[in-house]
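so im writing up the methods section and need the Phosphatase PAP2 family protein record in one place, dumping it here so i stop losing it
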Amino acid sequence: MQKMMNSSIIYNYTKVKGTFFYLPLFLLISIVLYLYTQDSLDAYSYVQIQKNVFFYLNSKLSQYPDLQSNLSETGDTLVAFSFLSFFVLYAPKVWEDLLSASLVGLLFSIVLKKIFAVPRPAAVFNTDNFVIIGKTLCGCNSLPSGHSITVFTTLTVLLLTFMPKKIIHKIVLCSFVLVLGLILVLARVAVGAHYPFDIIVGSIIGYISGLLGIFINQKYNIWTWINNKKYYPVFILMFITMCFLIIYKEMHENLMIFSLSLVCLIISICKITIVYAKK
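--- predicted struct ---
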């Protein structure tokens, strides 16, 4: 089963072309040009031009605080990796590309946040004027949204991994992934952590990171050792560590998303351990 899935994934990745970068680059350029025409390329103007939209979306979406809290945490790398932990056994190629893509996304997030240094909503607006769900974030690292990068990096890798052959199926799957991704990243506006452009830019960068991860792994094969059972203890140890980190988060935030992540990790640890013991 593993060989069959990996073969299918490798075939799908051969269909990934450089032209896939055209749309995200066009969207990023369009956003920059729009901000330029509105004289909003500086941090203060960037925030002010989105003020009304941010307040509107925040007020509407925050009416479901428990739901938005859980959706927001899907952009936590711990959560994303937990839900995909079983792929180590059944489709290790996914993890190979996901790791490369995630590292690219992390680099983009760190560098761009430092370059733009846009203050968070709670650092600019009176917190009585909008809803904050969970922890209040006040730093100058709003653009781009790191959670949005993680969400769309992960979704892009999965989308290109399991892209169907028929055009109608491709349209349906792409539409589903796009809608799902937007629902997840809009939660960052709902909890009062980001402005709309933060999540849009973060989502586009996430898509680019997913593509770059696939291209990098095709060229350099950095993570081929993942497919070797003798390295399963590395993942067992990593997943156990992730369990403790998620338990810590669950104790402090008490969100269902962490409980589900923990269940996924425990099941994956058991399955990987059984397979490793049988080798």
